[in-house]
């Protein structure tokens, strides 16, 4: 059996990287509270008490060509979501200014669909230029499988982080999507890093993957050098292929978050989709290695609390919301 205290000390001293086998043992650690405490000790030592917040806007909704089984925006599913084309500067700015005034650090435009045309990229470039000029927000984007020149345009417009989830373990992804691959996602992430952006990539747990595959995802993200890892919990949406997927227990979610921290000790481990239903009500969620969160509403589902309520909760947990 692993020596948990020794593993934690080695991670903190940058002297050790846990293997997949060790990560699986940690995920299954007999004492859940000891696991949470170990993950939070690593978080505190290597990341400090800064809590990173971000907000997203669904900048283009629905009509997606891809067949992702979990997604309400896929053309394969009939979920009754709002469908609309790319939003304009005024709408993006309205929410951005609200987030800025509430103290949110980051703001991302997220678009449905496999990718964007060059003409569409030119449209969002104008939005990002306006956001950069009139807000203090750190700008992010999530727009599918872009080319390197398109990513360069976003960077030149002020975007400093690009998001492209790998969604699940590479071994499980083909069971959930057949219209694009993990390799295509990783290529996009690599290009984003090459033009100067940070990489944001995580996934969704609760989509039928095994514990081994949760570990595989955590280790794979480490291997491609991801800076921010959004950890979503599946919210089964009626009309999708996963609408009847059984929910995960809160302990499973918290154990997974702790394991992700121990595998990726310096990354932002970010609460994301599923907060409202699964882990937002638990104080333990803020003491198991997590150090960031999406606040406000998600893409096609509502968030856990108001932004203001979230900020109070993060401060009460001992975090600072200003990066030092």
Structure description:
- By secondary structure, this protein is of the alpha/beta class.
- It contains 11 helices and 9 strands.
- The protein has helices at residues 4-12, 20-27, 32-47, 89-102, 118-134, 148-156, 182-194, 211-223, 250-263, 275-279, 307-316; strands spanning 52-60, 106-111, 138-142, 159-163, 198-200, 203-205, 228-233, 268-271, 292-294.
- A 9-stranded parallel β-sheet has the order 5-4-3-2-1-9-8-7-6, covered by helices on one side.
- Strand 2 (106-111), helix 5 (118-134) and strand 3 form a beta-alpha-beta unit.
- Helix 2 (20-27) crosses helix 8 (211-223) and helix 4 packs parallel to helix 5.
- The longest helix is centred in the middle third of the chain and has 17 residues, at 118-134.
- The N and C termini lie far apart (38 Å).
- The mean pLDDT is 92.
Kindly list the characteristics that best describe this protein.
alpha/beta, single chain, globular, 11 helices, 324 residues
Any chance you could write out the topology, listing elements then pairs?
Elements: H1 4-12, H2 20-27, H3 32-47, E1 52-60, H4 89-102, E2 106-111, H5 118-134, E3 138-142, H6 148-156, E4 159-163, H7 182-194, E5 198-200, E6 203-205, H8 211-223, E7 228-233, H9 250-263, E8 268-271, H10 275-279, E9 292-294, H11 307-316
Parallel strand pairs: 1-2, 1-9, 2-3, 3-4, 4-5, 6-7, 7-8, 8-9
Helix pairs in contact: 1-3, 2-8, 2-9, 3-9, 4-5, 8-9
């Amino acid at each position: 059996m692993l020596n948990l205290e020794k593993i934690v000390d080695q991670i903190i001293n940058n002297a050790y990287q846990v293997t997949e086998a060790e990560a699986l043992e940690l995920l299954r650690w007999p004492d859940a509270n000891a696991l949470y405490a170990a993950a939070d000790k690593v978080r505190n030592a290597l990341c400090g008490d800064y809590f990173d917040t971000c907000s997203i806007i669904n900048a283009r909704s629905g009509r997606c060509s891809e067949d992702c089984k979990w997604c309400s925006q896929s053309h394969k599913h009939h979920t009754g979501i709002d469908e609309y084309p790319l939003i304009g500067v005024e709408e993006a700015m309205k929410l951005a200014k609200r987030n800025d005034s509430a103290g949110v650090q980051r703001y991302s435009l997220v678009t449905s669909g496999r990718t964007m045309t060059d003409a569409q990229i030119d449209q969002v470039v104008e939005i990002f230029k306006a956001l950069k000029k009139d807000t203090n927000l750190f700008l992010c984007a999530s727009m599918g499988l872009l080319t390197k020149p398109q990513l360069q345009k976003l960077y030149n417009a002020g975007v400093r982080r690009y998001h492209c989830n790998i969604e699940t373990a590479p071994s499980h992804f083909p069971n959930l999507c057949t219209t694009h691959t993990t390799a295509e996602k990783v290529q996009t992430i690599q290009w984003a890093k090459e033009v100067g952006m940070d990489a944001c990539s995580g996934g969704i747990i609760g989509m039928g993957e095994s514990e081994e595959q949760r570990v595989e995802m955590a280790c794979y993200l480490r291997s491609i050098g991801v800076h921010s890892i959004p950890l979503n919990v599946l919210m089964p949406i009626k009309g999708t292929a996963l609408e009847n997927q059984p929910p995960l227990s809160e302990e499973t979610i918290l154990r997974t978050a702790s394991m992700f921290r121990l595998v990726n000790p310096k990354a932002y481990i970010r609460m994301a989709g599923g907060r409202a239903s699964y882990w937002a009500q638990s104080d333990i969620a803020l003491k198991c290695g997590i150090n960031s969160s999406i606040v406000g509403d998600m893409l096609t589902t509502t968030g856990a609390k108001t932004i203001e309520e979230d900020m109070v909760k993060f401060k009460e947990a001992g975090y600072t919301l200003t990066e030092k």
